[in-house]
User: Fold this.
Amino acid sequence: MGQWPSLPYNPDDNADGLIGVVDLQGLLANYGNEFASAVVSEDGESAIVYMGDMAYPPCAVACRNLPGIWELPDIEDLGLVWDEVFTLDSNISTWLKRNPLTMTHSAGIFYSGYGGPHSAGSSNSVADNSRCYCAAKQLPRVEYDYCRSSGNNGAVAMDNLKSCVNAKLQSGWQLLGSSRDAAREDVFIQAFWRWAE
Assistant:
């Protein structure tokens, strides 16, 4: 059975901005097929999707072609689908992301019940079909803020700015850069960033 649709799923099959009869025909053409959607972690910060059984190179390409930043999973990423992957009665293996530290040409592979105990190993048979999963993690979020101070008295404006800057630094903000308003010499601005919670 083929999988549909391409991720992310968009019900607007003909991309005309409307969901109409043509779009319904596209949906009905897939009636009865298996629908593969991503498994998302409880915190919403990681996801994994099964792409089918395929050789290592097409698997890597399939992950890169998904919208966003998807890649082959590492062993921790498989935790979201561990019950699928860790089956004692299966001799099917699962592709893993290559470890850049090993400096080998072999592809990473997780043996799921192959020949006895489950183990992580490597295989030079990148053409063999194995389970292909693609994993994504949310990039760290950043938030920005600034302090702005102005006034006819430059010393007072600077004191106000320093007070605001010190309060931001004590709250965990990092300095990003400062500037002066080009139109007004008495306006001082200090930008900040920090990792969003």
Summary: Residues 154-170 form the longest helix (17 residues). Residues 142-195 form one domain. Helices lie at 21-28, 56-65, 82-85, 154-170.
